Each structure stands twice: as structure tokens, then as C-alpha cells.
Automatic annotation (TrEMBL):
TM stretches of this protein: 32-49, 56-74, 80-99, 106-125, 147-165, 198-222, 234-259, 271-291
Location of the protein in the cell: Cell membrane
Biological source species: Xylophilus rhododendri
Keywords: Cell membrane, Membrane, Transmembrane, Transmembrane helix
Keyword Transmembrane: yes
GO MF annotation terms: branched-chain amino acid transmembrane transporter activity
Transport keyword on record: no
GO cellular component: plasma membrane
Protein topology in the membrane: Multi-pass membrane protein
Protein name, UniProt field: Branched-chain amino acid ABC transporter permease
Chief location bin: membrane
């Protein structure tokens, strides 16, 4: 799909959410988790790395911006850049170790790091607030309403989407696809697999750190739950539901998951059971996610082959 068309779809989502949602906070949440899913898709869909460590970078971004704004009182732009940097640094450390393994061992390493980070955040209560988290994370005065904050989040979302679109469409992105499809052949072609994987990890971690920082400013708190491995699972679920290997699919997954979770939570206190059943249906019936379903519908409606005229000999 052309880059301009893909970016146009993302722009339509950012402009359309205020028209269909009454809550600016819910709209901001959709785009924040969309950014986290974009970062996860870079690893899973383009590099073939199934990481359960995304919650580490989300939590790092969340805690970093909360500490810098509440204790050091840094300007918001500097604190947000620091959240991005901490996400990248955490991803560099985790990736440097994890990419030395493949398959199940790689997955187990990322999960182990996620658990370690959670317990480190839990025990370092003087720094992270422990079980209570860090409270009263401020926002600048020009973001005093939920919809003004949404405008800021939407701007960063579009900037992030555009940058990742350029990354995936570059030679670097195509090299990641080659590594995903056949690591041995990519290595035989002379590519440094560890360097490419590590760089993909760093880019993914920086974007996830940005999402974590924005989430803390949205809610006004940096909770311990942002560092749980359940956060990694949720980001991964959003990515898989939307579809891997396409950036806009991650946006679709975030819209579907966040809005559906919000609606189901009003129907039944045990709404996660309903969501689990729905996810089973998606996994069984739509292996390519929502984006694959949209592509199939597009082909059926707009790419039907015209009926072939009958040959005269056959008519006789």
C-alpha cells in the first residue's frame, strides 16, 4: 500500500475520533496504545521477534516523566524526551541480551526481563511509589482539558506514524523483512543480524517509552500496573488483533480493543471473560487480524474479475 494512503488513513482516524467519541480521555487512550502497538509491530510484524518485554519500556517512559515532572519539575518537552530516551536505553539493554537467542528462548528472556522489571519497580518504592505509583503527574496549562490533551497526543501520534512509515519503507525496513522471512539467508547475504535486531529494538523501545509517558500525563498517575507483564500482553494482543506487517493495522487493533473493552466494561463486571471469548474467535477466524479482513473485503468488492465472454465454439 502506498505510504501516502496509509498515512491518510491514520490522519482520518485521528480526525474522526473526536467526531464519534464523547470522551477526550478515551480518544487519547486509543492513540497512545496505537503508538505502543506500532512499536510492537516493528518487532513482531517486520522483524519476526515476539517480545513480551514491551511493558518494560512503557513503564520506563511512565516512571521517567512522572519523576521528572513531580520531583525535578523539568519542562514537559524535556521530560517527554527523557521518557523516549529511557525507553530506548531499556530496549538496548534488554535487546542486547535477548537477541542472542531465537524462538522460545528469546520469548522467555523477554518475559523474564519483564518480571524482573516489575519486581524492581515494586520494591523501589522510594523511587516509583511502589504499589501506589506516582501521583499528581501534571500537565501544562495549554492541555487543561481532555480534548486539548488529545490534540497534543494526536500530533505526536501522526509524527510517530509518519516516522515509522519511513523506517519500514526504507532499506533498513526491507532488511528487517528479509531477516523475518529467512534469518539464515539474510546472514548468508552478509547482514549483521544482531545489529539490525538491536536497532529495531531501540526504535521500538523509544516509541513505547513515548506512549508510556503520554499515558502518565493523561491519567495523572504512573501506576505499577504500567510495568506489569499484563501491559506487555495487552500491547501484543492489540498488535495481533489488528494484524502484523502493516502499520495501520496496529491503529485498527487499538481502536477495536480500547473501544470494545470500554463498552464491555459497562455491560458486566467480568467483562474480561467476554473479551477473551471474542479474542478466541478472532484468533480462530481471522489469522491475519482486522487488516486481513479489510483486505479480503476490499478484494471482493472492488477487484472482482469481469465475466469472461463465452467462446462461439462453446455456444454451439
Amino acid at each position: 500500500m502506498p505510504k501516502k494512503f496509509t498515512f491518510l488513513l491514520a490522519l482520518l482516524v485521528a480526525l474522526g475520533l473526536p467526531l464519534v467519541l464523547r470522551s477526550g480521555t478515551l480518544a487519547s487512550e486509543v492513540l497512545i496504545y496505537a503508538m505502543a502497538a506500532l512499536a510492537c509491530n516493528l518487532l513482531l510484524g517486520y522483524t519476526g521477534l515476539l517480545s513480551f518485554g514491551q511493558g518494560i519500556f512503557f513503564g520506563l517512559g511512565s516512571y521517567t516523566i512522572a519523576i521528572l515532572l513531580t520531583r525535578l519539575h523539568l519542562p514537559m518537552p524535556l521530560a517527554l524526551l527523557a521518557a523516549v530516551a529511557m525507553g530506548a536505553l531499556g530496549a538496548a539493554l534488554v535487546g542486547w541480551v535477548a537477541i542472542r537467542q531465537r524462538g522460545t528462548y528469546f520469548v522467555m528472556l523477554t518475559l523474564a526481563f519483564a518480571q524482573m522489571f516489575y519486581f524492581a519497580a515494586y520494591t523501589a518504592s522510594d523511587l516509583t511509589g511502589g504499589d501506589n505509583g506516582l501521583l499528581d503527574v501534571p500537565r501544562p496549562g495549554f492541555m487543561d482539558t481532555p480534548w486539548r490533551y488529545y490534540a497534543f497526543v494526536a500530533l505526536l501520534f501522526l509524527l510517530t506514524f509518519g516516522l515509522l512509515l519511513r523506517v519500514t519503507d526504507s532499506i533498513f525496513g526491507r532488511t528487517l523483512l528479509a531477516i523475518r522471512d529467512n534469518e539464515d539467508r539474510a546472514a548468508a547475504a552478509g547482514y549483521d543480524l544482531k545489529r539490525f535486531k538491536l536497532l529495531a529494538f531501540v526504535i521500538s523501545g523509544s516509541v513505547t517509552g513515548l506512549a508510556g509517558g503520554l499515558h502518565s500525563m493523561m491519567t495523572g498517575i504512573a501506576p505499577l500496573s504500567n510495568a506489569e507483564y499484563h501491559t506487555s500482553e495487552m500491547i501484543l494482543l492489540i498488535t495481533v488483533i489488528g494484524g502484523t506487517g502493516n502499520l495501520f493495522a496496529s491503529v485498527l487493533g487499538s481502536v477495536f480493543y480500547v473501544l470494545l473493552a470500554d463498552w464491555l466494561s459497562t455491560l458486566w463486571p467480568r467483562w474480561l471473560l467476554l473479551l477473551g471469548l471474542l479474542l478466541i474467535g478472532v484468533s480462530v477466524g481471522m489469522q491475519r487480524g482486522l487488516w486481513g479482513l479489510c483486505e479480503a473485503a476490499w478484494r471482493r468488492v472492488f477487484q472482482r474479475k469481469p465475466a469472461q465472454p463465452a467462446v462461439r465454439g462453446e455456444q454451439a
